[in-house]
Amino acid sequence: MLFTKILICFSMCVFTIGTYFIWFDRKNVLNHLGIGLCFVAYVIPLFVFDLNDFATDNTINQYAIINILGALTFILGLLIGVRWKSLILVDTVMKFSTATDGIVNPKFGIGVIKASKVIYTICLVIMALCFLYMGFLPMFAADPYSAKQFKGIYNIRYHDVALFYRTSKQLIQLLMPFLLISFFDKKSKNILLLIVIGVILIAVSLSRSEAVTGLILIFSIIIALKKSKKVFIYYLLSLIFVYSLGSSFWIIASVYFPKAGYVHEIDNLSIGYAIASGAPDIPDQLSFLEAFNSNHIDFTYGLTFVGGLIPFNFKWNPSVWTLLVANDTDDISEIASGGLRLPVSLWGYVSFGWLGVVVVPFFSAFLIGYITKKIKSIVNKLTAGANGYLIFYWLVFLYLNIGIVFTSFYTLSIYFLPGFVFYAMVNYFIKKTNHKRLPFN
């Protein structure tokens, strides 16, 4: 069983931080955050949990084979993608040349900051109004976890403002790093106030990682463009600490607020279990595969690839479908979960069987490899400073919010749209002004 756990851990880490195979450098901030995730979601759980509590030996072995086979084809895809000369569709959509131009033309960066401030401020107001309309804050609700997922009684008024709430929340998360860069550069108290309000709104929604991800990303970029190896090592260790703390959030909250309803049983919990309980990816995936096999669920044949483009609880929405399968039910309205996080290899398997295990990870990694190559070539031209940090984050933004339609083609989502709206808006002003004047001036 130990060897099986090692194989699972290796393969899951490949899916998360695999671009180290093609870009092993401190400037690869796209991967650094994944180190913390690997520690809390894969390393700790695999050596804390007894996998037989979640699945039979046959399912565990099947899960291991699916992932290691997918990981090997994933690595192959990365190695080929990074050497691929040109992908016209990817280049056209992602417009890497815009970032390159921004290195020598600061007007682009100034325009992005100005656009970010306006949209960010509007979204703060909208999100606050949504909380006011719903009449509760998830952090202080009687059932915080259900409130976070807007299940049961918490869904009634949320349903009316879901579009506005999720869009504003997502844009706040996406644009906060741009404001952080502006604050580091200008030291403006007004910008700091906007950032603090944004962090508070995200925090009370109980989105643990989103509340600090923007800050961590900017620190990652600053450290990446510096040349201190000692600071970089401390940074990596701090990532593990921060992710461990975040993963233990529900346990910690239950200790200090025992009547708040975060976790019901916290006695005699080890530190490892406290960390592992906050990122139950492995247990969830094993339970899911066990249910998929025992209930003889049909392959999706790609329906979950596009199901996320249909709003609300559409059957083939990846988040909905995984809950339906894992819980063997037709109604997920009372299940306090936003869906299961499956690796690309498992998505390939449930879509097309063993063929999918090979093909889906390969093409995802191929596109990741190509996009990473393009980003790397621009990042290597950047220097420390406000404009360098901004261009760097713009590239991170491109990868996480625009490139995602290519790299995560197997789980497309309507929630990719806010990022594209901001992206289209910035490109519109760039094209309209041809860098001669700034948007929102």
From TrEMBL:
Record's keyword terms, sorted: Membrane, Transmembrane, Transmembrane helix
Keyword Oxidoreductase in record: no
Spans traversing the lipid bilayer: 7-24, 30-51, 63-84, 118-142, 163-184, 190-219, 231-253, 346-372, 384-406, 412-430
Name of the protein: Oligosaccharide repeat unit polymerase
The species this protein was found in: Pedobacter petrophilus
